[in-house]
Amino acid sequence: SGAAVAKACAYYKIDPSNVIAVHDELVLEFGQLRLKLGGGEGGHNGLRDITKALGTKDYVRVRAGVGRPPGRMDTADFVLKDFSATERKELPFLLDTAADAVEASVSSASAKERCAGLTRRAAWRRASRGRASSAGTGRGRSLDWPCGCRRAGRR
Fold it and tell me: What's the whole-model pTM score?
């Protein structure tokens, strides 16, 4: 995936700081989203490949939570398996919010502005759709993006 990203950047003359990678994230529960600028790959082979191809870690990541594999299930098998029936019901909300994150990120002038202004815009959009209007702030440069799931215990 890194080679394709680097080729697209070269062809369209895109600076790596304007790349937005949307990826699965094991450390987040299913339905949680976080926006992150730069940082490590956390063992994610796709991010490692993109970082190597771009020559920098300073690009925006939209991290979509998929949860951890149950028991001793192989990580690769877990992320490649079909979604459960419950997850399939929540998936449209997760994808909608992830798309909002990408859209809001693209419309901002700089990566710093994207991370700072994204939560306000997403909160307004969720409120206008009848969803929760608050978004928490994560640690460092990472922002929590609740997906709007209606399951109890989720934001």
Answer: 0.69
